[in-house]
């Protein structure tokens, strides 16, 4: 289950609810990644990394499989070799890529990126974004400078709702490495909702709910993911974010 983010605005303000999703799978050059672990990256280094992105850690939950952070703009999930950063608003997640690659090698023991996914819906107000996130072409140029075997795609009509995606394409030289362990199963479900009922959305305001726990129950989110540990946060005056994690590493 993906993190749930509800962003609200009134006639005076605008908040970009579209999330930028960055997912990176790390490995080692020799294929021996038994002791490598992204969760070894110290907390203060993660906080510095997120300052580059222009967000901060609000809450934290963990189990044996995954570390889950609720951020001021969405969520961060870190497992042994997978780093998932979801941010909304005018954040700039791609600018943390180079520092992240250094941290992954310095503290976690990973020397290579095995796979990478960057995706987002088209913005409602692209003119409010910050370079390199104003245009998908800018994002692609930055990613291409770091990953020579990347490929960019657009799903849907560019003058309507569409989904931008950047990922890595396997090339022959990448397959010359020593044999890696069998690929881990990885399935992601993304549900994007817009133009929701204002009466229902009022649940995610301080006027309607005293705290995040009350909002979670009123919205029925606790029933949608009954077997997950929920880490939630209700913003002031409105807005809601939550992470749900299971013992087996699902989020």
Automatic annotation (TrEMBL):
Gene3D superfamilies in alphabetical order: S-adenosylmethionine decarboxylase (3.60.90.10)
GO biological process, one term: spermidine biosynthetic process
Identification of the protein by name: adenosylmethionine decarboxylase
Record key words, sorted: Autocatalytic cleavage, Decarboxylase, Lyase, Polyamine biosynthesis, Pyruvate, S-adenosyl-L-methionine, Schiff base, Spermidine biosynthesis, Zymogen
UniProt-listed Pfam families: SAM_decarbox (PF01536)
Example GO molecular function: adenosylmethionine decarboxylase activity
One GO cellular component term: cytosol
Entry-linked InterPro entries: AdoMetDC-like, S-AdoMet_decarboxylase_euk, S-AdoMet_deCO2ase_core, S-AdoMet_deCO2ase_CS
Family: Belongs to the eukaryotic AdoMetDC family.
EC category name: lyase
NCBIfam families (UniProt xref): SAM_DCase (TIGR00535)
EC number: 4.1.1.50
Pathway stated in the Swiss-Prot or TrEMBL entry: Amine and polyamine biosynthesis; S-adenosylmethioninamine biosynthesis; S-adenosylmethioninamine from S-adenosyl-L-methionine: step 1/1
Phosphoprotein as UniProt keyword: no
This protein's record includes keyword Transferase: no
Reactions catalysed according to its record: S-adenosyl-L-methionine + H(+) = S-adenosyl 3-(methylsulfanyl)propylamine + CO2
Entry cofactors: pyruvate
């Amino acid at each position: 289950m993906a993190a749930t983010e509800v962003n609200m605005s009134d006639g005076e303000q605008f908040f970009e609810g579209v999330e930028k999703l960055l997912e990176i799978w790390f490995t080692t050059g020799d294929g021996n990644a038994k002791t490598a672990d992204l969760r070894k990256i110290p907390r203060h280094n993660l906080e510095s990394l997120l300052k580059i992105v222009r967000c901060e850690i609000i809450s934290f939950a963990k189990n044996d499989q995954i570390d889950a952070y609720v951020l001021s703009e969405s969520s961060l999930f870190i497992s042994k070799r997978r780093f998932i950063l979801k941010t909304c608003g005018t954040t700039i997640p791609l600018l943390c890529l180079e520092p992240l690659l250094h941290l992954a090698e310095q503290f976690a023991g990973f020397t290579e990126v095995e796979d990478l996914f960057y995706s987002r819906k088209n913005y409602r107000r692209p003119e409010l974004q910050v370079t390199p996130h104003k245009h998908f072409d800018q994002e692609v140029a930055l990613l291409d400078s770091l990953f020579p075997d990347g490929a960019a795609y657009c799903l849907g009509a560019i003058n309507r709702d569409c989904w931008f995606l950047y990922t890595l394409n396997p090339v022959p030289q990448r397959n010359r490495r020593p044999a890696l362990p069998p690929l881990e199963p990885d399935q992601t479900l993304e549900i994007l909702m817009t133009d929701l009922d204002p009466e229902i959305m009022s649940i995610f305001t301080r006027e309607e709910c005293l705290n995040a726990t009350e909002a979670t129950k009123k919205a029925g989110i606790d029933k949608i993911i009954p077997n997950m540990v929920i880490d939630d946060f209700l913003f002031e005056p409105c807005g809601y974010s939550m992470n749900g994690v299971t013992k087996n590493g699902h989020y």
